[in-house]
Design goal:
The chain contains eleven helices and 14 strands. The protein is α/β, with parallel strands linked by helices.
Length: 301
């Protein structure tokens, strides 16, 4: 396992910022960590990086326990992008990376290539004070990549990035994943993570609420599918009649047809019931519950 946590807690007096978390992340996985503000995400990151000691529990990164002597060497193979990147405004982009490379013991020769990788080669000699928020974020990502890390911790990494830069960022993560790098990423933009992580964990008040792929969590929550029907004139009553015998399928009027809320296990029965409508059924769209639906569904339990 690239990351293994067992019974991990962090208490600040009566406040349990992280409370009994168990987690296992295999090598080469892109893993999402989501939760409300104050859920414990950043505290968990800092404990996994060895920056904050756990009150109790065991944390192993790359096989090395964060409290052991071997973790100092292991930490050289970690990359970290904090939520709020702090950079030196008077340095230019290349000087900034060389500064971080010296701190990490990474080859200085990597720095120009890292700027190229994040799309900042053209701005390498510009002072950081002239960088936009998105450019600063990309420079922060570049420093996290120094030293060819085996595990990357990325806290809200797409803050300030435009749509093209976000697409490029996730393309880079997929390339790193193919090289065996493990990525742990947090984001408040759930739609952004939905199709881009292999698995995710949902934290609430320091406790792990659920872990799994988006599809596994949908099935665990037994959330209904949404099916939208586009029907010709007269098709609505025919569709209602065709579906009347199916229990637990709710029909509501929608522009140009009907919307159905359908239990997952009845999807094929619904399609079979609609087949006799023939040409009266103009179009059909099936929509899975979004990650946002799953998240708020879990929080309401």
């Amino acid at each position: 396992m690239a990351i293994a946590l067992r019974g991990v807690s962090k208490h600040y007096g009566a406040l349990h910022a992280v409370d009994g978390v168990d987690l296992a992340i295999p090598r080469g996985e892109i893993f999402g960590l989501i939760g409300h503000n104050g859920a414990g995400k950043s505290t968990l990151f800092k404990m996994m990086l060895g920056l904050v000691p756990a009150t109790q529990g065991d944390i192993r990164i790359g096989g090395a326990t964060v409290t052991g002597r071997g973790f100092r060497a292991a930490r050289r193979h970690l990359g970290y992008l904090p939520e709020n990147v702090v950079l030196y405004d008077n340095l230019d982009g290349l000087e900034t990376l060389r500064f971080f490379a010296r701190l990490k013991g990474a080859p200085l020769a990597q720095c120009p290539a890292m700027l190229e990788r994040v799309g900042l080669a053209h701005a390498g000699r510009r002072p950081v004070r002239e960088y936009s928020k998105g450019m600063r974020q990309r420079l922060g990502f570049a420093q996290a990549l120094l030293g060819s890390p085996r595990v990357l911790f990325l806290d809200e990494p797409t803050n300030g990035l435009d749509p093209q830069a976000i697409r490029d960022f996730y393309a880079t993560l997929r390339t790193l994943q193919a090289e065996g790098v493990t990525v742990v990423i947090t984001s408040h933009i759930l739609a952004e993570l939905q199709e881009r992580v292999d698995r995710l964990a949902i934290l609430a008040s320091g406790k792990m609420q659920a872990v799994g792929s988006v599809q596994a969590l949908r099935e665990q929550m037994r959330m209904p599918l949404s099916i939208t029907l586009a029907l010709d004139e007269g098709g609505v009553p025919a569709a209602r009649q065709a579906l009347a015998a199916l229990p637990h399928v709710a029909c509501t009027a929608a522009e140009g047809g009907l919307r159905l809320d359908c239990p997952r296990e009845q999807k094929m029965a619904v399609l079979a019931a609609l087949a006799p409508l023939g040409a009266r059924l103009l179009d059909l769209q099936i929509q899975e519950p979004s990650l946002e639906d799953v998240y708020f569904g879990l929080r309401s339990i």
